[in-house]
Specification:
single chain; 259 residues; Nuclear Transport Factor 2, Chain: A; 2 domains; 7-stranded mixed sheet
């Protein structure tokens, strides 16, 4: 008669599986191993990045299209942190996205520093990704050839958010359509940044207080600053797209608050 594995062993096994899943997805993206990358995502997974918003399988197809006409971006990854809760997990890691490009006839190299946020879910005994988002922190732009100057003026950057202004400039110059004009980043307090509860509360890694909906922000205990209130996350609720004037059920998208 078999003996059940200790809890610590099961958690270590799941942590390793989720970590390898995240690293495999990024490795396949960089090396063009598209079939294996596609296997990393659940069919109904959600991906939200600077240039894409849609399902995981569609993200793979768009990645293939982007890799064909020019050199694709590559990624430098930091250690992966994993939080488990049963059949769900959240993983986060620091990352640097390296993107080659051309501005004003000068070959440049963009490095965008970000934090990647993954949601994983085990279905039918297999871990796959249910969500993937990026939180943009800062970026920098350098010429590929020493001695050259990057032809960028302050006026060209004036309309872009500081945490990803170089990325926005390069995407615009490359005519890359951006589906996320208001990307996640630390310079923005309200209106769309990734709430801590969405990252950690989805698998049940945090405890929350229930908030009442009220028209007067702050009247109810645990009320979000946007006044819409928060309700505990239920199955699949985190997949709902954020609204411009209401909080998502798995956390407040407007004020990035967790209650």
């Amino acid at each position: 008669m078999g003996t059940a594995l200790p809890k610590d062993v099961r958690e270590a096994t799941d942590t390793s599986a989720v970590t390898q899943l995240v690293l495999t997805e990024r490795e396949c993206r960089d090396l063009g191993r598209w079939a294996r990358m596609r296997e990393c995502f659940h069919p109904d997974s959600i991906v939200r990045l600077s240039w894409f918003s849609g399902t995981g399988p569609d993200f793979v197809e768009r990645s293939i299209d982007m890799a064909r006409p020019r050199r694709a971006s590559t990624h430098r990854l930091g250690p992966v942190g994993v939080r488990l809760n049963g059949e769900r997990a959240v993983a986060s890691l620091a990352a640097t996205i390296d993107i080659p490009g051309t501005l004003g006839g000068v070959d440049v190299f963009l490095s965008s520093h970000a934090r990647f946020l993954y949601r994983a879910e085990r279905r039918d005994g297999r871990w796959r990704l249910a969500g993937f988002e990026a939180f943009y922190l800062r970026d920098e732009l350098h010429p590929q050839r020493p001695g050259q100057a990057v032809p960028v003026t302050p006026d060209q950057l004036a309309g872009f958010r500081p945490s990803y202004r170089m990325l926005s400039l390069l995407l615009t110059a490359q005519a890359t359509p951006s589906t996320r004009p208001a990307r996640h980043g630390p310079a923005r307090v309200c209106g769309g940044d990734v709430p801590r509860g969405l990252r950690l509360g989805w698998p049940g890694a945090l405890r929350y207080r229930k908030a009442r909906h009220t028209s007067d922000p702050g009247q109810a205990r645990g009320q979000n600053s946007c006044g819409q209130g928060w309700r505990p996350p239920g199955p699949m609720n985190w997949r709902q797209a954020p609204s411009s004037n209401a909080c998502a059920r798995s956390g407040c998208w407007r004020c990035a608050a967790t209650h």
